[in-house]
UniProtKB/TrEMBL annotation:
Alphabetical list of Gene3D superfamilies matching this protein: 3.40.50.360
Family: Belongs to the SsuE family.
NADPH-dependent FMN reductase-like domain: residues covered: 1-143
One Gene Ontology term of the molecular function aspect: FMN reductase [NAD(P)H] activity
Presence of keyword Nucleotide-binding: no
Protein name: NADPH-dependent FMN reductase
Organism lineage string: Bacteria, Pseudomonadati, Pseudomonadota, Gammaproteobacteria, Pseudomonadales
Keywords of the record: Flavoprotein, FMN, Oxidoreductase
Domain of life: Bacteria
Pfam families: FMN_red
Length: 192
């Protein structure tokens, strides 16, 4: 099982990336391999000018084509997902999320825009033909304490419980999808 993790924060130090990294570690403990990208893995001009010929964009699309699922993490910016995440999603091939299970993750300053995953991110994922979009995780900044010299990274206990529940649902859905795909006769699979 293999997933691609996309980090949508423009910041190197980032709460949404902390949730993403925790998720990747959790999945690896459950035997799921991953490939991670953030905005920092691309040349800014390639993102700004939608350069589909960029080697890093081609590599991302190759990895996505092989993936069973995708995690998309983003900060909430102006009641939507981040602009830099949009520039990455714009470069995913047409129908690029076909047959993929998607787990969205968002962090925000307040609860005010907790519906942003549904009204902003969901439509673009649907346009890319994802098979299933899970409910995902929404967290506020005060639920995530960065590690300091004296304490490790801390998630609010309720957030941690929701995160693990979502990750377990993601794992179960990936396994279910894999089993169903394998059950289809190869000739039929070719025709789909
Ligand atoms: C430009 C900008 C716009 C933001 N807009 C919102 C917003 O509309 N609603 C909200 O709740 N938080 C907003 N925030 C706060 C961020 O969503 C929040 O701090 C988030 O956790 C940052 O994620 P990151 O640490 O992964 O970059 C905004 C922050 C910035 C810098």
């Amino acid at each position: 099982m293999f997933i691609v993790a996309i980090g949508g924060s423009p910041n190197q130090k980032s709460r949404s990336s902390e949730l993403l990294n925790y998720s990747i570690d959790y999945l690896e403990h459950h035997g799921i391999e991953s490939y991670t990208v953030t905005a920092h893995d691309f040349v800014a001009e390639d993102l700004l000018y939608a350069n589909f010929n960029s080697p890093s964009i081609k590599l991302l699309n190759e990895k996505i084509a092989k993936a069973d699922g995708i995690i998309i993490a983003t900060p909430i910016y102006k009641a939507a997902y981040s602009g830099v995440l949009k520039t990455i999603l714009d470069l995913i091939a047409e129908r690029g999320l076909l047959n993929k299970i998607i787990l969205p993750i968002a962090t925000a300053g307040t609860h005010n825009h907790f519906l942003a995953l549904d009204y902003a991110l969901r439509p673009i994922i649907t346009a890319l033909k994802a098979k299933e979009i899970l409910h995902g995780i929404f967290a506020t900044d005060n639920q995530i304490q960065y590690a300091t010299s004296t304490q490790p990274l801390l998630f609010d206990p309720s957030l941690k419980a929701r995160l693990i529940e979502s990750l377990n649902e993601f794992i179960a859905t990936l396994h279910h999808q894999k089993t169903n795909t394998l059950a289809i006769h190869p000739l039929l699979a070719e025709a789909i």
